[in-house]
Amino acid sequence: MNSDSFYGRDLAYVHDQAFGHLARAGGETLLRLLGRQGFDSGLVVELGSGSGITAQLVTEHGYDLFGVEVSPDLVEIAQTRAPQASFINASLLDAELPQCVAVTAIGECFNYAFDERAGDEALGVIFQRVFEALEPGGLFLFDIAEPGRERSGPRRDWSEGPDWTLCLEASEDHDLRTLDRRITVFRQVDGGFRRSDELHHLRLYEVQDVLHGLEAAGFEARRLGAYGSAVHFGRGHSGFLATRRR
Ligand SMILES: C[S@@+](CC[C@H](N)C(=O)[O-])C[C@H]1O[C@@H](n2cnc3c(N)ncnc32)[C@H](O)[C@@H]1O
Hints:
The protein has 246 residues and is of the alpha/beta class. It folds into two domains: 3-148 and 206-243, Rossmann fold (3-Layer(aba) Sandwich); 155-202, Single Sheet (N-terminal domain of TfIIb). Helices cover 28% and strands 37% of the residues. The strands form three sheets. Strands 3-2-1-4-5-13-10 form a seven-stranded mixed beta sheet, with helices on both faces. Helix 2 runs parallel beside helix 3 (53-60) and helix 5 packs parallel to helix 6. The radius of gyration is 17 Å and the shape is globular. 41% of the residues are buried.
């Protein structure tokens, strides 16, 4: 897969238009949790910052934000949406993490195998790097897809907006612990419909392994069933809150 086929211009547009609920709910949850920790400013690092929906919310509430995003088309939208934030176009496995009060990865960002190094080992390394970047009392908020996300077999679904239609086929390999999402977007441009096809390959992580990895990195960690009252994680999808003790 090359970068043209991973959150390219049409899927980036559709993601921003219609799939921002997780980014909003995650951002609101983060702001509330940071307040409880006694923070009201400081730097938030957002891994897989998408189209900047969380970044917009967080910067409007007095925090600085540094986003790391592998899709250049998403970075372009994010720069317009959250002009006070700064973004780099890089893999979250490579980016240097500055000292910060929080790190987020909202929307299964660690699962995507667009970067072929993604997997259990890389996850352990990133947990360690996040721990070292966080100030004492700092928070690490993220969600992951786990085995069983598509337990009932291959699923076909579609969604639509005023100028686009998105078709999805999702299938999980239980033995390999992988999930493929084949996505086709038809977007209205110049009086016709442009078709874009993408294949997203995800590695699935067991909840217990994630919790052990967080504890091994030094965090106090727990699983979350929801991002506030707005998003309750469904089957095969879990949130995590990890804290660097003071
Ligand atoms: C489902 S989207 C969520 C985006 C955003 N956080 C939100 O909630 O709207 C997953 C994001 O992770 C990004 N991503 C996946 N693998 C990545 C990597 N290795 N480095 C940086 N970003 C990555 C994707 O490009 C995409 O923006």
